[in-house]
Amino acid sequence: MARILGYIATSLDGMIATEDDNLDWLFKYDSMDLGEHDYRTFITRIRTVVMGRGTYDFIANEPSPWAYGAQRVIVVTSRPIDNPKGPLELRSDVDALIGELRALDDGDVWMLGGGQLQMAFLERGALDEIEIYVIPEMLGGGRPLFPATGFRASPTLVGAQALDKGCVRLHYRFN
Description:
With 175 residues, the chain is of the alpha/beta class. The protein is built from five helices and ten strands; from the N terminus they run ββααβαββαβαββββ. The protein has helices at residues 24-27, 39-42, 53-61, 94-102, 115-123, and strands spanning 4-11, 15-17, 46-52, 72-76, 89-91, 108-112, 129-135, 143-144, 156-162, 168-173. The strands form two sheets. The protein has an eight-stranded mixed β-sheet with strand order 5-4-3-6-1-7-10-9.
């Protein structure tokens, strides 16, 4: 059974992007040394990437090439995607998708991007673990890591570690 994982950066004040979906505050940390927790190491464990439509549109509008050629990519959306940037599958039913993902046995699943889809998975008990990289930046507003929905949980801390440039890695298990 596949594990469904989160791997995400947030500002110190809990934002994953500015109000206008800008990530420049995060990109200035691209040279940060995360050691064994580096994205390039993380992605080698991932067979399936799941993202919402907003995250897909952000990635599709970037000039960089499609980065997920080695993974199955599923976009959760109710609207068609004309001329997709890379190979992908579309799903609109989150509950059916969770069942499909749980049946996979070819590697882990990464919930890429926005907090809205991650929250939908959390509310259904379907996010197993999350690695949160707290970046020492205050944005003063923007897109929250976890949108306020009334959902409550008490995850188990797996580890906390200070990393390069003032970043802190928090690793939690939900189930």
